[in-house]
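Design a sequence for this backbone.
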């Protein structure tokens, strides 16, 4: 078994975050919220960047105990073919969505790299920004995705507790803890501009996972100083298989974590998905969070086939329409942003490449 990298176990850089995460410290939730709000306003303004996930396939070769797509689940399997992908993209564009995240399960013959690569090629013809949340890949595979116009990848470690990780990932390629840990670096070496990191809150001790996640972000930031980094805070939601998280995270604990990350990482994009309720997302908007998903469908083909009763990877909690979400944001004096990315550049996040990032806003329709 490979040893853990030094940066993951070095706690010298995370003492301030640890203090903020401690509910018994002198850092009250109200004090942290005020500081997080001020930093968010200073760095990101009164805006909320929006994206939506597009599930390409629910085939999977791994046996993650907590996932509705695990290979032993009694779930009908399918993948979108080229015509279906185009129909999904058209349906999403009608909603005003131009920033999408393409998702698959772990690598399978039905949904392998070639399939994902073709899907990216199709998506970049229609969307302003295309990112991927899929299986770990090689540097050369990430380079091919970057050359096709994929600008970002999301790869959650799920939990940084290695013993828990081994127990939860019962079989399949995802069982390789170190390979997954090194995936963000491989993506950036391959020319991907931005990486999204996170843990699945509820699988392990949330404070320990948060500190390890912070160390990972800091390590990536030091090594790939040109790279964009985002951090997500997904909590467990009901899914096929009925897994009950042994370390549930309540609303106050999640809020404290988000505020602490904003204070410790003022320039990092913080993301909150439709796993959370509408009321909670409304409350957290501008208080650290500057990016959210909208109109999320966790089924394969859920945008065009809106009457599909297929079960998704997990249950969506915030099911508001685009218009309802935009109205709620504007009521908080926050402007929803559908486009802040111009796909007009290429080049690696590590090196001397020139990066062009245009902050163009497109209003809600």
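Sequence:
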């Amino acid at each position: 078994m490979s040893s853990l990298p030094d940066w993951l176990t070095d706690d010298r850089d995370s003492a301030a975050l640890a203090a903020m995460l401690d509910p018994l410290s002198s850092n009250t939730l109200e004090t942290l919220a005020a500081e997080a709000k001020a930093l968010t306003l200073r760095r990101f303004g009164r805006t909320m960047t929006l994206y939506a996930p597009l599930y390409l396939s629910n085939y999977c070769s791994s046996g993650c105990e907590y996932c509705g797509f695990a290979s032993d689940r009694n779930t009908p399997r399918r993948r979108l073919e080229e015509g279906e992908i185009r129909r999904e993209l058209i349906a999403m564009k009608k909603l005003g969505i131009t920033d999408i995240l393409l998702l698959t399960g772990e690598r399978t013959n039905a949904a392998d790299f070639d399939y994902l690569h073709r899907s990216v090629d199709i998506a970049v013809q229609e969307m302003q920004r295309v990112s991927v949340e899929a299986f770990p890949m090689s540097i050369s595979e990430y380079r091919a995705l970057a050359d096709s116009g994929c600008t970002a990848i999301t790869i959650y470690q799920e939990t940084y507790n290695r013993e828990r990780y081994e127990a939860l990932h019962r079989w399949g390629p995802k069982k390789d803890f170190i390979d997954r840990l090194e995936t963000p670096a491989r993506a950036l070496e391959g020319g991907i501009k931005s990486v999204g990191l996170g843990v699945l809150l509820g699988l392990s001790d949330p404070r320990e996972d948060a500190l390890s996640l912070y160390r990972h972000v800091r390590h990536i930031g030091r090594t790939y100083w040109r790279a964009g980094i985002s951090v997500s805070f997904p909590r467990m939601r009901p899914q096929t298989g009925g897994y009950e998280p042994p370390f549930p995270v309540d609303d106050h604990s999640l809020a404290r974590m988000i505020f602490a990350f904003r204070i410790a990482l003022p320039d990092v994009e913080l993301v909150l998905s439709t796993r959370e309720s509408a009321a909670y997302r409304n409350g957290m908007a501008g208080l650290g969070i500057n990016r959210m998903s909208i109109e999320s469908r966790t089924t394969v083909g859920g945008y065009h086939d809106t009457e599909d009763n297929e079960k998704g990877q997990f249950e969506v909690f915030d099911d508001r329409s685009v218009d309802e979400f935009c109205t709620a944001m504007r009521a908080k004096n926050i402007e929803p942003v559908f486009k802040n990315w111009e796909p007009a550049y290429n080049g690696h996040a590590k090196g001397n490449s020139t990066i062009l990032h245009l902050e163009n806003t497109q209003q809600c329709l």
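The first helix runs from residue 6 to 9.
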